[in-house]
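Example 3.2
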Amino acid sequence: MTLSLSDSLKAFIDAQVADQGLTADSDYVLALVQLEQDKQRVRDMLIEGRDSGPGQPIDAAYFERLRERIRQHAAK
C-alpha cells in the first residue's frame, strides 16, 4: 500500500512515531487500523447486547446461580 501525504501530515506521523517509540511509519498506521478494529468490535458487541432483549437483575441470587454452575462443572 502506498500513501501520499502532505508535508504536515508526514511531519505529524513522524512526531507520533518518535513520541510513541515506534520504529517505522507503518507501525503507526498499523496501530491506528488496529484501534479502529477494536472500536468496531466494541460497537458490534454493544449493538448485540442492545438487541439481545431484556437482561436479568444482577443480585445475590444471580451470583448464587453462577456459583452453583461452577460447582456443578467442577464436579464433572
